[in-house]
Amino acid sequence: MTYVIGMISQKGGVGKSTLARMMAREFVAGGLTAKIADLDTQQQTSTYWAGRRAEAGLEPEVQVQSFASVASAIADAPRFDAMILDGKPNASTQTLEIAQAADLCVIPTGPTVDDLHPGVVLAHGLRKKGVGAIVFAMVKTTASERETEAARAYLTQAGYDVLSGEIPVSTAYGQAGDVGRTITETSFRTLNARATMLAQSIIDRVADIQEVA
Ligand SMILES: Nc1ncnc2c1ncn2[C@@H]1O[C@H](COP(=O)(O)OP(=O)(O)O)[C@@H](O)[C@H]1O
Ligand SMILES: [Mg+2]
After folding, report:
1. Domain locations in the chain?
2. How far does residue 193's CA lie from ligand 2's centre (Å)?
3. What is the whole-number distance in angstroms between the Cα of residue 40 and the centre of ligand 1?
4. In the chain, which ranges are E strands?
5. What phi, psi does 32 have (nearest 5°)?
6. Which CATH class is domain 3-212?
7. Which of 90, 147, 153, 174 sits at a 20 to 30 Å CA gap from 50?
8. What pLDDT digit, counting tens, does each position of 92-118 carry?
């Protein structure tokens, strides 16, 4: 069975591609095969990133392919242990297709209501359409633990699970992407450890879901 993970959001620039790249890298580093399906055909963020990674000669190699449709990505999925669907910047009909195809949907969100509210609206909409496995990932958090806790409480009260671990705002994370690295591969051990913790909680989730299925 292939783990299919969908990275989706209502807003653009929240961290879908960042988390997609991290997940693919962590699966491969853990000895599984993985591919990112870059469904953002306009920007192809992950595809270009893979080019930078290959250019830099970084190991492990992370496979990224641009797909025009969710269906074609899913058709390719059985060849891999994990397929990560990296969606378009904003919610669209594609978002629902990703959500319906994925074992687990991850919605990255920042800690402010500006980010949280549209994420919850998206999740509610998907739930109404029968999508069950939705989790939120806290990204671009600040040094204010209170803010992060309030954000977690907001999501929990809205009826959603929030992954343990979070990704704080850091230029080192952004720079890692610039040179083809993932957020688990920065020059800072503590930042890598924080990202690894979030990756592990996504892996645990998707493994649990498949065990039950
Ligand atoms: N924790 C972080 N700290 C700083 N910059 C970040 C962080 N996470 C993501 N970014 C940057 O934010 C931008 C948008 O992230 P991206 O993953 O491309 O979002 P999306 O795919 O949802 O549009 C990118 O430039 C990325 O490098
Ligand atoms: Mg993206």
Report:
1. 3-212
2. 23
3. 14
4. 3-7, 34-38, 63-66, 82-86, 104-109, 134-141, 161-168
5. -100, 165
6. alpha beta
7. 90
8. 899 999 999 999 999 999 999 999 999
CA of 189 to the centre of ligand 2 (A): 25
Q: Whose alpha carbon is nearest atom 14 of ligand 1? A: 13
- Six-digit token pair at 56? 């830099």
Q: Which residue has the tokens 């952004």?
A: 174
| pLDDT over 80 (residue 212) | no
pLDDT, tens digit, for every residue of 168-194? 999 999 999 999 999 999 999 999 999
Q: Which residues line ligand 1 (CB under 6 A)?
A: 9, 12-18, 45, 89, 139-140, 167, 169-170, 173-174, 177
Rounded to an integer, the average pLDDT of 1-23 is 96
Give the pLDDT band (50/70/90) at residue 90.
Answer: confident
